[in-house]
């Protein structure tokens, strides 16, 4: 029962028997609520739909009191009171004061009519001719003008008053109660100033004067009869109006004094404004319902335009300046030049150094086990060490400039050009990303060598150089070590075999001298050593050329990849869904 009494007859869902002249408009508004759900105030839309449900719709008017309901209740009583009749019980009930902060709803009906208790509203039946003639109900509630108009602006805060249901614990439940028209009542210049501040930022969302009227309580002028209202604001004196009403009720002979006091109080201007738009003209819409629909459509279009402007401002703010991109590209070119110079000079120094000469072909007999160590040292200490550090610095520049925003993470392809053999189960167990971003920190390249697992830690900078170094260490150093061992064994075996053959010839052919027999051994030793020299030097030169060429490839790949990020990165995310929603909502409004 309580739930059924929360909403008045204008807030329930629209019935199906919509007049034929309003069906098309009703269908369009109903579709608008679904298409532009993010931008429409559903409570106002439901009130508008209810206004289309009948030929003579109920119109709801709000009387909002600044800082409380006292002055609003007094104005509502004066507007609805019948001067020709005595003071009714409803008048005393209306002015008795607000009960626990609840709102007051005035409907046409007999004073004795019973209304169920409602935690939001105190409903009072008023036998006022105005309510009956114009099918009007009056909502009296207070309004807070000190906290701003909220996210939807002061206009919506006035036309959609909020009713709060008290709760045992917590802030309670807030229910929106939309109205067709509203009169904002204040007492004294301070309330007028407070209202002006409240609506000061409403330039973009103007408050329609045909739907909102401001009445500020100030003393009535004594020099002229009547009160000329300013634009949207009327000065009223409720005390003068109350005295005039009481005097006329005392005796009809006081009609002149009543007329003078009533018109000087400013209430006739409020009454005239209220009556404007409440009359039904044939089968046409009531102007109040029409204004509600137009206001709702204007609000939707304003919200869509504001969201478009906010999105445009975000796009402008997130755009990377062109001079920033140009500066980073210049730094990238300098880095590439220094990296290629480093690759050439450091490798030349390493191959001309003492350690590299330790594995000359004739020293392999006692240095064969040092080949792997020396080759690994060249790669780890002389192969693009400074270039890798420079790439980290470049990545910092990219991050600082915001170029990673909107980046589609290029370089996710697997490294397909392995120096010796393609990747398989014996090499990388998972695909390697040459350029790793923060979002793929879980993506790791795993190296398996001699049963020991080595994992290059994922970093938020280009990984082509360290990954290529790991590949070279895994795929080129072991074969070079194996070749050195094979050459040493082959050379020693060939020398031993030639010496044995020389001794056998000497023993089996007595006519040959020792010198002649030793020629066989000498030939075998010379041939084995020459073969060892040629093959080892060729292998060393091939390894030097290979790591040099792979270094150039790694640098070129890193340079191209960073350049691609500079050119394409930092682009704002495309709000395709939002654009489509706003387009559909705008079409529904039109």
From TrEMBL:
Q: Which domain of life is it from?
A: Eukaryota
Limits of the Mmc1 C-terminal domain:
330-552
The record's annotation in PANTHER family points to: EXPRESSED PROTEIN (PTHR38644:SF1)
Provide the protein name.
Mmc1 C-terminal domain-containing protein
